[in-house]
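Hi support team,

I've been running sequence recovery on a batch of backbones for a student project. Most finish fine, but this one hangs at about 90% for roughly twenty minutes before it completes. I'm not sure whether the input is malformed or the queue is just slow. I've pasted the structure tokens below so you can try to reproduce it. Let me know if you need the job ID as well.

Thanks,
M.K.
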């Protein structure tokens, strides 16, 4: 379908008529990765940071679990590496994992120096928790279950102190501007929309995508409303390589109350001894894995959906009553307040829970410094695929990844020989198609429901193929429309990222990590590698594990 291969969205504009801004670095996203990159890059460059909504609305600010790092003499770098590799089921890139784990403790010490508050033990050292897949206590928390809020506060305050950083809130990044005048493809900045200023162009030497994941393409999700796959979709249209898109991590425990949002119930609750049980109070995980309730998230999520399919129940329960009301409230004050809003006391009541889409493992294919195959285009955080997570992210490695690779992206920008931002004459004329009025809310609702049913925790070739037929129908309308506001552009991005996920899931004919094919239930040793997708190819490319660096020149 041709509309999926358009280089840009259907937006008519002339660059000469638009406001134009010049900077050294433009960063799309205000989560942990984007803010860490901004702090580091601003030491040498002028930086603009774009927030799709308010500055503090991101997956980072919603994170409860904590940050994994080796901060204990009883722990070791090699032990953290091994836990990460085990969770990744053969697809982690060892160099990326080692960089993450070795450089992580220094990032934590830097946060503490910047004033981040963390929970401490009786000796005054950071208190270390335990989460699924970890064999050692190494999870740092703030206010029990509000690590993301405190991390975001710390980084936002630090960014605001940087005189060379400008932060634009409610500024929607529509597309990456690509300069091909000298034969090579180079990112030259972004086309944006602001409710007050309308369309505007930001020209930049370096463009950094740190826009988060695509959890909103699923009906059941723990993600905020901004997680609509914008970064991956923009990178796709710009010609960047994408990889590991089939791997979406589903969190086993979100609050299941009919009609209410799926509030995350942190894995740290199970780390403190809570158990998953059925309606009779029987343990679900006791005989399924050596770590029982603290098994990796893909194992626990599959166990829950299979139990529900067998029992006919709508949800399972989390039993944290052993902690008592006072104990739970002290350890998890935010969760306690949230549950009280639904009339639940975790010290006395079982908590109804159900899995939900949580973290996009795949994304823009990068090297160890966040470089993509498009010169001047970088990615970090959840929208990037660095090779750290493999087929399943180890709990609490994501905030650490944002810190480590956000800094590494800024270091790469300093090293790379990129020319100054220069305007490219653009005249993008689009004929407005004559079609009936499109109900965007209905398209989004249908997409999210269909993705949950057909591309959720358990998948099959038949259901995935049905999804491609649905995309053909939706695409005739949503991709031939000219939209003039973010809801339309978001819908196009959701359809783009969802379709790419389906193609990737169809291609991986095995079950590995978060990707479960009930028609291909075993791991295939021949598929220990990565599918690579690019808009300029008709089909995927294949990269064996250990060959995870894009080919990119430093300049043009």
């Amino acid at each position: 379908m041709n509309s999926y291969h358009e280089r840009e969205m259907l937006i008519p504009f002339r660059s000469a008529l638009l406001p134009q801004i010049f900077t050294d670095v433009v960063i799309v996203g205000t989560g942990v990765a984007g803010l860490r990159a901004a702090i580091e890059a601003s030491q040498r460059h002028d930086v603009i940071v774009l927030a799709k909504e308010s500055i503090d609305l991101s997956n980072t600010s919603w994170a409860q679990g904590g940050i994994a790092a080796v901060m204990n003499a009883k722990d070791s770098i090699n032990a953290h590496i091994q836990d990460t590799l085990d969770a990744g089921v053969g697809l982690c890139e060892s160099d990326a994992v080692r960089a993450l784990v070795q450089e992580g403790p220094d990032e934590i010490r830097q946060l503490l120096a910047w004033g981040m508050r963390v929970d401490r033990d009786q000796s005054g050292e950071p208190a270390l928790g335990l989460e699924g897949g970890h064999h050692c206590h190494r999870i740092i928390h703030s206010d029990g279950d509000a690590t993301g809020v405190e991390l975001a506060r710390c980084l936002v305050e630090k960014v605001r102190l940087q005189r060379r950083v400008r932060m634009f809130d409610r500024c929607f990044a529509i597309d990456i501007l690509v300069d091909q005048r000298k034969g090579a493809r180079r990112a030259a900045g972004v086309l944006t929309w602001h409710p007050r200023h309308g369309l505007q162009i930001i020209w930049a030497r370096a463009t950094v995508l740190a826009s988060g994941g695509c959890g909103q393409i699923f009906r059941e999700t723990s993600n905020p409303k901004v997680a609509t796959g914008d970064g991956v979709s923009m990178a796709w249209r710009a010609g960047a390589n994408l990889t590991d898109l089939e791997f979406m991590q589903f969190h086993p425990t979100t609050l299941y109350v009919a009609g209410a949002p799926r509030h995350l119930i942190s894995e740290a609750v199970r780390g403190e001894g809570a158990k998953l049980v059925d309606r009779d109070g029987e343990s679900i995980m006791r005989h399924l894995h050596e770590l029982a309730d603290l098994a990796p998230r893909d194992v626990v999520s599959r166990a829950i959906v299979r139990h529900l399919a067998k029992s006919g129940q709508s949800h399972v329960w989390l039993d944290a009553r052993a902690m008592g009301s006072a104990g739970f409230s002290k350890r998890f004050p935010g969760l306690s307040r949230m549950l009280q809003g639904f009339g639940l006391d975790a010290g006395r009541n079982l908590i109804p829970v159900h899995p939900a889409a949580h973290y996009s493992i795949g994304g823009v294919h990068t090297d160890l410094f966040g470089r993509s195959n498009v010169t001047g285009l970088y990615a970090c955080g959840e929208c990037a695929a660095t090779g750290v997570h493999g087929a399943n992210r180890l709990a609490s490695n994501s905030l650490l990844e944002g810190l480590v690779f956000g800094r590494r992206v800024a270091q790469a920008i300093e090293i790379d020989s990129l020319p100054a931002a220069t305007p490219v004459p653009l005249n993008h004329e689009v004929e407005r198609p004559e079609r009936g009025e499109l109900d965007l809310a209905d398209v989004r609702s249908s997409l999210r429901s269909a993705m949950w049913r057909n591309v959720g925790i358990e998948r099959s070739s038949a259901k995935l193929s049905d999804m491609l037929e649905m995309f053909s129908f939706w695409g005739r309308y949503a991709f031939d429309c000219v939209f003039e506001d973010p809801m339309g552009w978001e819908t196009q991005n959701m359809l783009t990222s969802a379709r790419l996920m389906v193609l990737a899931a169809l291609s991986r004919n095995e079950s590995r990590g978060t990707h479960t094919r009930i028609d291909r239930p075993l791991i295939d040793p021949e598929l220990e590698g990565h599918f690579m997708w690019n808009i300029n190819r008709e089909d995927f490319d294949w990269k064996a594990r250990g060959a995870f660096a894009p080919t990119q020149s430093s300049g043009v």
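--
Follow-up from support: It reproduced on our side and the slowdown came from queue contention, not your input. The chain has two domains: 1-247+361-547, 250-356. No action needed from you.
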